[in-house]
Amino acid sequence: MTALLKVGLMGYGFAGETFHAPVIEHCGSAEVSAIATGKPERAQADYPKATIVEDFDALLALAEGGIAEIVSAQQEMVAEAPAPRG
User: Fold this and answer.
1) What are 2-56's pLDDT values in tens digits?
2) How far apart are CA 1 and CA 9, in angstroms?
3) Does the residue 44 lie in any domain?
C-alpha cells in the first residue's frame, strides 16, 4: 500500500473548509495532517487527527517531506478583484 501524502493546509476559512480540505481528503492519495488557522476549534472538530498550529512558521516547522497548500482570500484581495464582465 502506498503511503498517503501528508498535506499542511495554510488557512481554514471559507475556501479551506469547503473546498481545499475536503478535496485533499477525498482524492485518495493525500490527507490533511496539519492546519494553520486562527480558528483552531473548528479545524480540530472537522479534522481531529490533524495537528493544528497558529501560523505559517509553525506549519513549516512540521514539514517532513510533505507540502503546504496556501489558502488566502483576504478581504483586501477580494475588494480589489475586477468586476465580472457580462
Assistant:
1) 778 888 888 898 888 998 899 989 988 888 989 999 989 999 999 999 999 998 8
2) 24
3) yes
In this structure, are residues 4 and 24 in contact, taking their beta carbons and an 8 Å threshold? no
Inter-residue contact 30 to 4 (CB < 8 Å)? yes
Angle subtended at Cα 57 by Cα 4 and Cα 80, rounded to the nearest 5 degrees: 95
Host domain of residue 27: 5-80
Domain count, the chain: 1
Does residue 85 form part of some domain? no
CATH number at residue 41: 3.40.50.720
8 A C-beta contact, residue 14 and residue 37: no
Specify the pTM: 0.74
